Structure formats: structure tokens, C-alpha cells
Amino acid sequence: MILKYSVDKLLYQRQSSDCFWANLQPDENALTQMNEIKMLVRKTIRNAFRTFQEKAEEKGLSALTEEYGISLESLAATGNVDDAINALKKVKPKFCSQGSSVYKTLNKPAHTPPQQMDVDDGTYLPMTIIEETGPIIAKEAFFKIVDSALQQLCQENRDWKFINNKPTCARIIVSTDMHIDVPLYAIPEGEYATLTEVYDSSSYSLEALATKEQEVILDPDQVYLAMRNEEHWKQSDPREISEWFKSEVKLHGEGLRRVCRYLKAWRDHTWEDGGGPSSISLMACAVNTYNDPQNSSGFAGDSEALLAVVTALPTQLNEGVYLMTKNEMLYPRESDQKNHSEIVSQAEKLKTNIRRSLLSAESQEECVSGFMAIFGSRFPYDTESVESIANQVRGTSAMAQPSPETEMKPNFSAG
């Protein structure tokens, strides 16, 4: 499909601060602050377990459980209570970044408030994992210890707010435009020994720290997520997604990562109060389009890639989106069902606007206006950077035709 216009220069230029990609970049000061807060939260959780265990040695665990609201009888998720008690006395958490800082798809919020940048930082807890039944210590004990520590941290930082109604994590709202989520994972003691954790954050940016911590691969079947709204631990390894996405970017190039960020920017502009497809589901849709055999020759630029991705998006969302590595349903999930028709409708609008802007707009001005209607003011209004591709193609074709004067004549001479 031949584009009429290309907005490649408006979408992304490596050295330019006046392109859409640059306008999505979080402020460096904000990234530094997020990194500092992450390390403070890690220190707080590490100290909380150390304090818990020191008090247990001093007072005895039975006396201490009242302080935390943990009953000894409820400590064991599976197997022996004494084994669970002894294991809890030895737990030393390690940590590992996850989410958009690992995928390198973190965008600046489109509307603040209420939208916020988020840091996802997993807390990994070593313990015995019993085959078929899972971790031996009940997840409630860990939620009690971590929640108590983070609540105290928020009291010491009065502008912070602790949230514990998320099923998969504890959350600290740091400011109107930033929060940190802390999910809890159980892993076998052997896996724990290999988990990389970088203590000295001073030499690492938020992105570099996340990359460094992904160097060790855990057995995904031996990683369990603590869920507040479920009885038992749930088998779930966030590194599976990061490894999957990393391999797809390696295959298709950085353009795939940028297109995923454009989709997230569309969602955040469209649903000011939150909502819309999850980031992971949008990433999966983009990957599926890149992997479609009809796109096997690749894309000439971000305009062409974005056009292909948004053209496929409504159908993908309507039919359901799966993480192919696990055949896990990403969209629609239960929370999406109520707004499913609206989400698909908005995806259709995205498709229509992008196609009109790139394929049939009457002018560069109309092309840019179409993109701004989708992405908002973060998309730059710069009509001079819009390239007229169809005219270039027609011009090239015309130049390729030989003129009558230079056309070769047949040679009828004898001999």
C-alpha cells in the first residue's frame, strides 16, 4: 500500500526534541526520583523482614504474630506449620524491576492528574516450593509484613499514600503523577540464589537498572505471585513477558517498541481517567501484526508500521488477544467486558483517522490535524515535516520513462 503522506519525521527523529517520540519521554528528573524511591522501598522491605525476624528471636514468634495480625495456624499454605514458621524466620527478600521500565515503553502521562507514571518492582521471597501445591508459607503473612512497612514509610513521607486494594500488589502513590507497585513473588531457594539484584543504584539509570536485573532467567514454572483476592499463590513469572518482548524487538527492530509506545499514547489520550486496553495487550497486537506473513518484508518507516498495526487493531481486539507464549488471554479480561464495545469503537476511530491522514488527506495540514485528533497536543504541528510520498513515487516513475528523443531506434542497416 503506497502512502500519500509520511509523518516519519514527526513520529521519530533520533536527535530531535521536537517529535512525538521525544514528547513521550519522561522527564529525567522524574526518572531519577522514581529510581530513588524504588531503592528506598526496597530498603524498607528488607529492613522490615530483618526487624520481624529479630523480634521473633527476642519475643518468640507466637508473641509477635499479634502485632502483625498473623495467626500461627494460618501461616502454612501447604504442609507443616513448623516448617512454615522456620522458613519465615529465614526469609531475605530480593528485588527485580518489571513492567514498562523493563520493556522500555514507559511514557509520560497524557493527562495529569489523574494519570500517573508507574514503577513496578517485584519482591522475591525464597522458600520451599512443594510440587503441585506451591509455596509452603501463606501469602497473607508476607502481605502483613510488607503492608505494615509501607504504611509506616508513607507516614514518614506525609505526601505519600498507601493503597492495599490492588489484588496483585501494594501501591504507594508518591505524587499526582507517579506511583510504585510492589508485587510479591515466591521462588525456590535455589532460584533465589541465582537472582541478580543490584544494590548500588547510583551507577544505574532506571532503565539500566531494569536491564541489569533481567540478566538471570528463572524457571517460570517455579515463580508464584501473591494475590490478595485468591486463596493460594498463583503461578506467574513477569520475566516471561519481558523475554518474549525482548526477542520480538530483536527480530523486528526498535520500530516495534516505538509503535507500542504510540499505541499506549493513543490509549492514554483517549481514556483520560484510565481504561482502554492494557499495555501488554496493545504490545501483543503490535507484535502479531509485525509477525503477519503479509508484513514479512518489514516496514519502510514508522508511518507505514503504525498504519499496518492500527488497521489490524479493531479486529484483533474484537476477536481476543492472547499472549502466544502461554496462550494466556490478555484481552478482553473480566474488567474489560463492560467497556468492550467502546474500546473496539475507539480502535475503529484510530484506524479511520490514521488511514485518512496517511492515505487520502487533502493536504499536509489535514494529515497533521488527523494525527493530533488521535494523539493530542503531544503530536507536533509541523506541516513542513510531512512528506508527500505519492508525489515522490509519481515523480520517480515519470523520470524513469525515456523521452522520445533518447529512445533507442532499431538499426536496419545491412551487414
UniProtKB/TrEMBL annotation:
This is Cyclic GMP-AMP synthase. It comes from the Bacteria. Residues 253-382 form the Cyclic GMP-AMP synthase C-terminal domain. It comes from Thiomicrospira aerophila AL3. One of its GO terms (molecular function) is metal ion binding. GO terms for biological process: defense response to virus; nucleotide metabolic process. Residues 395-415 are annotated as: Disordered. Keywords: Antiviral defense, ATP-binding, GTP-binding, Magnesium, Metal-binding, Nucleotide metabolism, Nucleotide-binding, Nucleotidyltransferase, Transferase. It catalyses: GTP + ATP = 3',3'-cGAMP + 2 diphosphate. It holds the Pfam family DncV_C. Residues 395-404 have a biased composition (Polar residues). InterPro entries: DncV-like_NTFase, DncV_C, GAMP_synthase. NCBIfam families: cGAS. Residues 93-185 form the Cyclic GMP-AMP synthase DncV-like nucleotidyltransferase domain.
